[in-house]
Amino acid sequence: MRIRKLVAVALAALALVMTFVACGDKENEKDLSASVFPVSSYNDTVGVTMGDVMPFYDDGVMNIYHLQNSRGTLSTYYHPISRLTTTDFLHYTDEGIVIPFEEKYKSPDAAIGTGSFIKDENGVYHCFYTGHNAEENTGLPYFEVVRHAVSKDQKIWIKIEDFNLYGDSNDFRDPYVYYDSYDACYYMLVTTNEGGRGVIKRYSSTSLDAADDEWIYRGVFFANDDGTYNMECPSYVEYNGYWYLAYSEQGENRVTHYRYRTERNGEWKKFERDSIDASGFYAGRLEKAGDDLYAFAWCATLTGGAVGEFDWGGNLVTHQILQKSNGELCAVLVSGVEEAVNSEKEYAFADGGEAGDVAFDGSGFASRAVFEIPEGIVRMSFDVTVNGYGGNFGLTFGLKKGLNDRLGEAVVAFDPAGNKLTCYNDVSSIVRYGDPLANVDFVYMQGKTYSVDVLIEGEVLTVYFDDTVAVTARFVNMEDNYFAFYSNGVNVKFGGISFYE
Hey, which of 41-45, 70-74, 168-172, 397-401 has the most confident mean pLDDT? Predict the structure, then answer.
């Protein structure tokens, strides 16, 4: 009963604190205005990037809790949990930091790691999160521990200092807590390892107010079936008769995978394409909002400028999830964003030609340049009809001048021969695209017409293809430079081209 009493005391303290701060609370909030790929927060117009996302839908509001990529006075102290809120996935309010790290050498919260948020039957909000401290001589049993905080309003959070749930490994993190109505209890999924490979373990409790030693270990919920890597940031949802487990690969491919069940305690299965997006969409989590399902992650900044690899921390990326009849999950453009970014803009080709279809006969390399991409949110849509498999085609960005028959600094390549959709950011010539930045598998059919939506803001873009796959990437020189449709040996037609702001 120790933790239950502590929670009661914490809630009483919350009520007292709220009477003094409620009137001035709004002063710390800042509307981020329209953005489809927001960062964590702004300080004097300088963006602070976003890490692992912990979405929590509550009473019509999507709360985007996340690790903020900020640090304290020493490198030991970092990653507080911050919060954005939105009702339309286009306008976000910065609610500020809610779970801070502690600048104390021996604190289990010297750094903060991923967690999850849930509301109990009394309307009290609970956060279970990761405390991290890898310094020497701290006296702590392991580097990582599951911690607990409570709130009455999602603004003021009180840590339950006596709650310290340890595993038997330094890797013990990313708790995801959910209520199971079948078993009438709460379950906690935790990322850890066992026997040399990553596993997701499960604990149970009948109350969110339970002490750490009252959470009962229930064994391995899922063991890595694809390698030895840790499976970060798990989430687990039931949706239209299917049970989905999503997690991110802390390994070579760096993607968000998912597995599914057709029965609540049935065999885990996977589709041939088992990822949501590609390596530009990391630490993805699933969250329901009414009848809709969404996936949230972050697109990282790059390590070395325009041609770098993905680093840590970046911009929020949100996909709506389309469920096929066989249970497969497909990332599609958020319907509310598509409806809101609907002001169609006239466009012209850089060679002075009138707006219209673009066709290439596949005899070699050719491209046709279009106007400069302006600042702000840009959405484009078009259809592509593929009539050959000899090379690749798509979009190229970062053209300094509006010249035809050129490639820019970056390419989105539709590759029928390789059954891929690939983003490159190290393009040196029409035959040297460099290493892929991000890619997804897709099997093309000759003669079929496919629909494409592209969402661009700042350095980030997502390409949605055929309501089936999505690929997110970061190209640093898109704004205020020309882009072009191109073909490198494919007979292809781009039709129905439209641009929206």
Answer: 168-172
